[in-house]
Amino acid sequence: MRKPIAEFIGTFTLVLFGCGSAVIAGPQVGATTVGVLGIAFAFGLAIVAMAYAIGPVSGCHVNPAVSLGALIAGRMSVGDFVSYVVAQLAGAIVGALVLFLIMKGKASGWEGGMGTNGWGAGYLGEYNTVSAFLFETVATFIFLVVILGVTHKIALNHFAGLAIGLTLVMIHIVGINVTGVSVNPARSIGPALFVGGQAVAQLWLFIIAPFLGAALAGLLFRSGVLYGRES
Hints:
Oligomer: single chain
CATH superfamily: Glycerol uptake facilitator protein
Protein name: Aquaporin Z
CATH topology: Glycerol uptake facilitator protein
Structural class: mainly alpha
Number of helices: 9
Largest sheet: none
Radius of gyration: 17 Å
Distance between the termini: 25 Å
Subcellular location: Cell membrane
GO cellular component, one term: plasma membrane
Family: Belongs to the MIP/aquaporin (TC 1.A.8) family.
Organism: Kaistia soli DSM 19436
């Protein structure tokens, strides 16, 4: 059970502190705002911290799309994939629950924002469905190329966690105004369950697009085009 427990803790941390940065210190709270850059670093630093904390145990996927890419690349079994995804979803939901309970204690009131992903009219940059789907697919592909590359057996991976975290920062800087940045179905599902409505209705994109991008990256590594065939 060590690997699923590690994945639960990692995904819990990512959702609580990543989404928490948007809800508690995001642009909507005025003087205490950290802005897009601060939110981007909150997500990235959460990954860096967890990569070094739980990476030796589970690899620190904390993301069903990462696990799918690893599965397709031949780096994990179907059984491990299933247990990872269950643990990741549970961690994301509990992380969102803790954030929800914290925000319910806000004396001046709270409108219910949870850092959910979305697109379209009324959501941040108001990008359309095509833009949102394209960004999430391409960003997840790039994210997985970095992850699978820096963790490859022939790579110099002592700084893998830092490289992965900074890649997530980069993706958020570009993509927050497009979709709020998912590249992680668990990260999207957890907060959406506590908001409901459009956040839940739009979840399909934040499941399909990251899985598609991850699958393409997994196939790329399995084919051996970049590093040779996975053993």
